[in-house]
């Protein structure tokens, strides 16, 4: 059952395509880059598209709540509300939001560093959260004009070459008992955990992409059997849309202990909306075979790091 009407979905698809093409054109021109935090960047393009997307969704869904990456006020209000102390930005003003109400999470450019370096692995992303669960997601990669959407109980779809809607059929990756198995691993996680993962799970062959959402799509399309994220920086607007698609594809979304990824207030850091759990997204066979070796590898690195900090 689709969580929105066909008409509303058509508006979302058109909005993402318009903003994505604006990003693609802006990438060829001069733009400013700012550092929000340590190795956390934003460009003037992010900020412009953030405002455009926020306004579009406020107009289309005035009764729903809206959180965008570059509007830190909306993120802070979300957490305060979940603590029973505040309000969330809505299309029609500032009103309390209940746990079962719909919340749109918008990332104007997912993979900003890739965008900054004129790469092609960035995306415009939207996720729909309700009852503390991902309901739907939309991922648009402007460089290759790949547009994906869907969610649990709805299905998976992609935009065809003539603009038609086509089913997106998940593809199985190589068998996890093969000599080499593909693993999507972010650049920072590769630097921090790559050597240990190679030691505990030598079959895994890691590679990186920019956008969180496009990494998840690699798993759905069978280019990789598993995506591991242990960097401790991923936020709700990064995960809601992609994990909705992953769940619709029948993938497992869990932490290193096998506990399903949660989206409730106790599982998200206040104000920043960063997930407390490390995240594994993978085919069940890959999760079953490699979760424990990866957990051991990550734990070994963290123990070593703690030892280095001790006098």
How would you describe the overall organization of this protein?
There is one protein chain. By secondary structure, this protein is an alpha+beta fold. It folds into two domains: 6-167, Fructose-1,6-Bisphosphatase, Chain A, domain 1, CATH 3.30.540; 181-309, D-Maltodextrin-Binding Protein, domain 2. The chain is 37% helix and 25% strand. A seven-stranded mixed beta sheet has the order 3-6-7-8-9-10-11, with helices on both faces. It has a five-stranded mixed beta sheet with strand order 13-12-14-16-15, sandwiched between helices. Strands 1-2 form a two-stranded antiparallel ribbon. A hairpin with a 2-residue loop joins strand 7 and strand 8.
Features:
311 residues, D-Maltodextrin-Binding Protein, domain 2, 5-stranded mixed beta sheet, 8 helices, 16 strands, globular
- How confident overall, as mean pLDDT? 90
**What's the architecture of the largest domain in CATH terms?**
2-Layer Sandwich
Q: Percent range for helical residues?
A: 25-40%
Rounded Rg: 19 Å
Q: Domains counted in the coordinates: how many?
A: 2
Structural class: alpha+beta
Q: How would you describe the oligomerization state of the chains in this entry?
A: single chain
End-to-end Cα distance: 58 Å
Provide a brief overview of the structure:
This protein is of the alpha+beta class. The chain is built from eight helices and 16 strands. The strands form four sheets. Strands 3-6-7-8-9-10-11 form a seven-stranded mixed β-sheet, with helices on both faces.
